[in-house]
Amino acid sequence: PTNVPSFIPGPEGSFAVPLQANAFPTFIDVEGQIVRVTMRLRHPEIIIFEDVLTEAECDELVKMAEPQIQRSMVVNNDEGGSKVANDRTSNGTYFHKGFNALIETLDKRCAALTGWPIEKTENVQVLRYMPGEEYKPHNDYFDTSTEGGAAHVGGSGNRIGTLLIYLSDVYEGGSTFFPESDLHVMPKKGSAVYFGYPQSNASSKTMHAGSPVKTGIKWVATKWLRQNNF
Q1: What is the pTM of this model?
Q2: Closest CA to 60 of 103, 11, 3
Q3: Averaged over 53-64, what is the pLDDT?
Q4: Which one, of 66, 1, 18, lies nearest residue 192 by Cα?
Q5: How far is residue 194 CA from its own chain's centroid?
Q6: Could you give the CA distance from residue 176 to residue 162 in angstroms, rounded to a whole number?
Q7: Residue 10's pLDDT band (boundaries 50, 70, 90)?
Q8: Peptide bond into 44 cis (omega under 30)
């Protein structure tokens, strides 16, 4: 495309808004990677991007993650820490910032698309969902009314947004489902869905689920945005 608009991040300290309120570009130039905006909702704040990662980048990230994935866990709201739960049956692993050139590239694109500095994001999490595996409806922000949720907030503050990147195509099932909007985002390799929740409560309407995979294997990479440095 020609005349590709450049994204101008919001002011430091504001909550993450990937696109300016009155700007609706179709294409965003992210350091030479042309990302397409294919859908946007205002409330809840949900945006779908295509071509966030190339096919080769997706494949390399899967190759990096596969040897070290372990059963995914959830926050233990009662006691703090994390625990295995039947609500979440995927396997996954993390890559720290600066782990290698690919992780640095992913972090930079996330920062450019969300207008939020890398220092205020969590480490990349890569997840694998086999047929039958899912993540039942949940919120990504921490419930600070519980002991365990408050412990996870710490000095980094609460989560305020999620960028979920699809690393594989899924033939059937595996959507990211927002029940309050009755919206299913279908996995497409290299694409991503962003959803923001600057208010860490039900008013954000960003409860979501990873629907059960029926045919194929679903790989995703997740970047969570925090209020403060992580």
Answers
A1: 0.90
A2: 103
A3: 98
A4: 18
A5: 6
A6: 12
A7: very low
A8: yes
Residue 151 identity (one-letter amino acid)? A
Please give the residue that has the higher pLDDT: either 11 or 132: 132
User: What letter does residue 111 receive in the DSSP assignment?
Assistant: H
Q: What CA–CA distance (Å, rounded) separates 122 from 113?
A: 15
**Residue ranges in 34-193 assigned as alpha helix (H):** 55-65, 101-114, 147-153
pLDDT above 50: residue 36: yes
Going by C-alpha positions, the residue among 216, 193, 215 that lies closest to residue 206 is 193
Q: How far apart are CA 135 and CA 120, in angstroms?
A: 25
Residue carrying structure tokens 């430091």: 12
**Residue type at 215?**
T
* Greater model confidence, 3 or 161: 161
Specify the pLDDT at position 8: 38
Q: Which of 34, 227, 210 is nearest to 129 (CA)?
A: 210
